[in-house]
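haha ok so turns out i had the wrong file open the whole time. this is the CORRECT one, sorry everyone. sequence first:
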Amino acid sequence: MLAFLPMDEAIYSVRMHAQRAGAHLCGAERLVPQARIEETAATLVRRALAHPRGRAEGLRLAVDLVDKAGVLHGRLPDVTTVRVGDFCSGRALAAQLLGGCGVTQAAARFALDTLAAGAAPDGRSMRGAMLVGAHSGRRLEPDAARGVRVTRMDLSARAEQSLGAALAPYGLDRVQVREALVLAAKVLAAPGVVAELCWSDDPDYLTGYVACAELGYVRITELKPRGDERGGRAFFVDERNLDLQGLCNFLERQVFLADDIGTVHPPREHL
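then structure:
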């Protein structure tokens, strides 16, 4: 979490990735000043060792100095929560929302079905995200097993405080929500990205979301059945004029700091 730092104070990206049984278990990261590197690393390690799906069997920590001049500043999307009766209704709503973001129904259904079946070649969840053509529905990521990882992002201290105050009245001031919002903000700022679809691989966390510039970040309370460990992300891209390498570099290397938040709307029922 970054406060407003003196011009000469360094910023570091601290990232954690954990595995269990040879598969991705969890990941997390922060942007912090040098004085908070050890504290942040310890927090991320504890998170991996106390994960709901089991203790990590292997984890990696990476710490990199950030070029402050190259940091991209942005705003979090508006947040809407839509309550649905079951995951089938949730996936139908997701397809509908993606259509409003400029994604064809064929591409939306392909992504929904692929995430539900396990997007990695072995039928498990991918570590990263799929890149899906918003018009064709074709997968475009260079490595179908790894996908594309979104890294080097965080909230400023002021934005984190404001976000917590805005989410708390609806019971949403949780680390999963905060981190997903930051990731969605960076993804929507990426060149060529049209929309995002996501739900967790945590078997007890059923909520997912659709995000795009037109709709903001729309949480859907059920996008998978309870107990299912398959989940992941699909980034829909305009493949008609796409710089694939530039997009992947942005998602994986560009440092992004959200220093403003959007509006958090009251939850509503899906009709």
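Helices lie at 37-49, 87-100, 105-117, 157-167, 175-189, 244-253.
again sry for the mixup
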